[in-house]
Each structure stands twice: as C-alpha cells, then as structure tokens.
Amino acid sequence: MIEIRAVSHQIAGTPILHDITTRLPEGRLTALIGPNGAGKSTLLRLVGRLEPLQAGRISVAGHDIATTPTDRLAQVMAVLGQQTLIASRLRLAELVAFGRWPHHKGRPTAADRAHVAEAIRTFALGPLADRFMDELSGGQAQRAHIAMAFAQDTEWLLLDEPLNNLDMSHARALMARLRALVDQQGRGVAVVLHEVNYAAAWADHIIALKDGRILAEGAPDAVLTEDLLSRLYDAPISVGRHQGRPLVLHHA
Amino acid sequence: MIPAAPPRPSRPVWVLAGLCCLLAVISALWMWQGLGGGNRGFVLGLRANKLAALALVGVAVGVSTIMFQTIAANRVLTPSIMGFDALYVLLQTALVASLGIAGFAGLPAAAKFLSEIALMVLLASLLFGTLMLQGARDIPRMILTGVILGVLFRSLAGFMGRVMDPAQYAVVQAASFASFNRVNATLLPVAALVTVLAVLAAWRMSARLDVLALGRDAAVSLGLRHRAVVIAALSLVALLVSVSTAVVGPVAFFGLIVAGLAHGLTRSASHAVLLPAAGLIGATILIGGQWLFERQLGQAATLSVVVEFAGGLFFLYLLLKGRIR
Ligand SMILES: Nc1ncnc2c1ncn2[C@@H]1O[C@H](COP(=O)(O)OP(=O)(O)OP(=O)(O)O)[C@@H](O)[C@H]1O
Ligand SMILES: [Mg+2]
Hints:
The complex is a heterodimer.
Chain A: E1 2-11, E2 14-24, E3 29-33, H1 40-47, E4 55-60, E5 63-64, H2 70-73, E6 77-80, H3 92-97, H4 101-104, H5 110-122, H6 138-151, E7 156-160, H7 168-185, E8 188-192, H8 196-202, E9 205-210, E10 213-218, H9 220-223, H10 226-233, E11 238-242, E12 245-249
Parallel strand pairs in A: 3-8, 3-9, 6-7, 7-8
Antiparallel strand pairs in A: 1-2, 1-4, 4-5, 9-10, 11-12
Chain B: H1 10-32, H2 40-72, H3 84-106, H4 109-135, H5 139-163, H6 166-176, H7 188-204, H8 206-212, H9 216-221, H10 226-248, H11 254-266, H12 271-296, H13 303-320
The structure holds adenosine-5'-triphosphate and magnesium ion (MG).
Adenosine-5'-triphosphate binds near residues 11, 12, 39 and 82 of chain A.
C-alpha cells in the first residue's frame, strides 16, 4: 500500500498540491487522471522521491520515503518520470540493464542478465536491443524506459503517462502487461493516464485530481460518471457502457 | 538472439590497449630520442621530470573533463570553461595577497599546495555543487553562469594583482598562464600523489558515474544517492583541476578535445572505459605535442597556444553543430 498523508507542495510560492491524503491499494492497478496541470506528475514524483517532500508523509509498502535509504527504496519501487532524456550514448540493452542496478550495484549476476533479457522480450524490443537510444523512435524509446523500470522488479511500479508516443496496439499490450503484473504477481501499479478509457478498461482504482486536490477516488464505476468527469475536465462528457465497463465519449 | 549481457566489450578493450601502446612509444621517444653523448644521466633526469609533469596534467585534464561532462549532462563543458581553474588562480592570488611574498615563499611548497587544494575542493563543491544541483536542467543558463563566474574570478584575481606590489604580482603571474614548457617541478611528488589518489577514487566511482549519466530522475529512481555522488565527483574534479593548474597553469579547451576523442574512440558509455581512455589520450597528446614542438620545431613554448586554439575551434564546432547534449 502507498499511504499519502496530508501532503502539500508548492513551487516558488505557488501551491501545487493542497493537503492530499489518500491510499493506493496494494496488488491493484491505480490510475491517476485529471486535466493538464492538475498535479498528477507532481504527486507521482513526490511518491517516487524525485522531488523532496515539503509537508506531509508518504510511505510505500511500509517504508517511510523520508527516512528509508534511497537505495533500499529502489528495491521497493521503480519510478518513470514524464520526461526521459539521457545525455549519454547508450544502446537499448545497456539502458534496460541499468534497471538491475539497485540489486547488484555494479556487479551484475546471471540472474540479473536473465531479468534484463526477460524485460527486453516482454516489451518486444529484441530486434532493437543493439540500437543506440538516440536512433529509436519516440515510442520505441518510451518502451525501452518502461522495460528498464520493469527489469527493476519491484513491489511497486509508478509510471507517468507511459502511453505517451505508443500506438494503439503497443498501448494495449502495455496495459495488459501491467494488468498481468498485478493479477499474477500481486504487484502494485500506479499510472498517470490521459486517455480516460484506458483507465476505464484496465484500472481497479481511480484517483481524479483537479487543481491540486482530489476530486474523487474509487472504483471506475464510481468515478467515471458523466457528472464527475464533466466537472473534472470542465467539458460536457457522456459515459456509455461497453462490455460491462464505462466507456467515456467526448465527441461534442 | 537477445543478448543476455550488454554488448561485447571487445572494442573498448582494444582501444585501451592501443592507447597504452601509443603512450609507451611516445614516452620512449620523449626520453631517448636525440640523446647526445654528454651528461646522459642529467638530461634523462630532466626529461623524466617533464614527462611526469606532462603525463600528470594530461591525465588530470582528461579524467576531470569526462567526470565533469557526466555531472553536467553535456559534452560542451569543461571544468575550465565553468571557471574551476580561474577559481584556483584567484585562491592563489588571495593567498599571496594575504600572506605577503615572504609568507608565500616561506611556506613549504607541498604544504602550501595541499592547503590550496583543500580550500579549492571546499569552495568548488559548494559553489558548483549548488549550481549543478539546481540548474542542471537548463544547460544554456549553466554555461552562461559558468562563463560569468570564470570572468568574475579572473578579474578579481587581476584586481588583486593590480593592488598588490609588483614583486608579489610577479609570483602570481607565473601561476596564472598556461605553459607546458616551464612546469612547476617542485610540486611534482605531491601533485603525483594527489592525482593518483583522485584518479583511483574516480575509477572506483565509475559504476556510479554510469548511473549518474542517465540523468537525475533515472539515477534517483535507481537508488543512487544523487547529491552525494555529484558532490563527491565535483570534489575530485576540483582536486584534478588544482593539480593541472598548479603544475602548468590554466588550460581552458584542451579537455574538450580529450573528452571528445575518448567518447569517439571508445564509443562506450561506461566510465570504467572512458576514464582511463581520457587519461591516456590526454597524456599522449601533451607528451607527443611537446616532443613535436620542442624537439622538432624548436618552438618549446607554443604547445599551449596550439592546444588551446584547436580546443577552441572544437568548442565552436560543437556549439554550431548543436551538440549540446
Ligand atoms: N518547475 C515548475 N515551476 C513552476 N510551476 C510548475 C513547475 N512544475 C510544475 N509546475 C506547475 O505545477 C502544476 C502541476 O504540474 P504537474 O506537472 O504535476 O501537472 P500534471 O497533472 O502532471 O499535468 P500534465 O497532464 O500536463 O502532465 C502545474 O500548474 C504546473 O504549471
Ligand atoms: Mg504530468
């Protein structure tokens, strides 16, 4: 479980998050949704200790992120930020191999190599393994970064807009892969999603953020309602049903 | 068909072996070429001293530039462009100004040098640590800040020089211009010790530097103690810059050539390869260059100018090509 208690955050004096208290259930897929600038990335980055916590407490699987050593946290959660640019000239397989760093600290074992190979296979990156990262398309690079986080093999996986740049079939494959992590291995996954229908189709739990506050949270059926989504995005939105799940329609 | 290990290390190994051989050949050439009849022992001693100085400076510049570029996440900066060596010169000037020439000359060279570099490490990691940890995402701003800092340090040192008496100023001036011809040989033993220790420490950090090179977010996510590693690496950079500046004076762009060659030749992102490659390349260029200019062209003093000119051109080329990352 990820427990967020009374977390507030400001940047240069501007409040970004206001007194957020919530829980992300373990062994579930949680989607963070909300309009641009709502504070989704900020919240995820705070949980992933990519930004220093200013007020409140956060614990991940029982580890208080303010007091647990960062290298220990890296064995508990993997975080992938929204922007992923690397300066060094790396091959794809080398990048994915870094996912094992928290476990071997520079001395990879055979088991580490097996994890890397599995991550590369899982995201269908085998044919690209020897390519340099700056010679990949946006979606391929995105998948490589996800594969690195995946190779980290942690109890929690936090991904900020992982579907960015992915085509329909790779987006679907990724969500199915995350679903399998949750269902088969009991991992916890938190994803920031923009396409609400992916949340409708794959998430167990949804947290809707607006203007740095939680507008609603709960099961997809409870959160993805016409009234709530229209308020969340300040636009008329209708919700139908498809295969027993909400289907969000936003064509005027 | 999926490689279970990162791609084979054969190329870097060959490159490193080749660089070692090249350095050995050039060093032998430096030592024994044109050795006349006369007092061979004396000439060999002189040559060995200079060889050691050039090698030290080459290694220090190469290793520090690679580390610095990793911290700064780009390939156009060197510690010197950011004002590291200017800071060192300023420190020296301040020391002369405050101790007076008698006090300055009276201190044992090694003690003076060690206290200078201690001060340098402290100031540089404080100043550049703040700069790098805050502004690392905005590279143009960081370059600008560094250049301004460099100018500031230089003009402060110049100002102090102007207000001190001419005898003191002469002492400072000798320390503020690069010259591979007149190396400061009294410092060699202690400089060698500091360089060896710093390079060993850098080498031990190489796996962490690899992670650092992924950028702050990825490094933190992988559990690297980012701030601590940045500060430690900057301290080593400050040590190495102090050594090279103390021995031959400030060299601004030379590191750029060395780092560019190291990256280009090894085509590796692994610091366990890059650091030794840069050290070997730096030493080889300086020894080979000084041999060429001093022995073949009879222009002992020009190497620094040529190296700086070529480095400056390379800097412009990188900027114009937009190779900021
Ligand atoms: N470095 C910064 N300086 C100033 N304001 C910032 C900074 N980073 C984020 N903000 C502000 O914080 C707020 C929340 O940003 P955040 O990135 O968390 O939003 P988000 O919900 O992830 O949006 P998006 O869907 O566009 O990714 C925004 O209003 C943004 O303008
Ligand atoms: Mg965002």
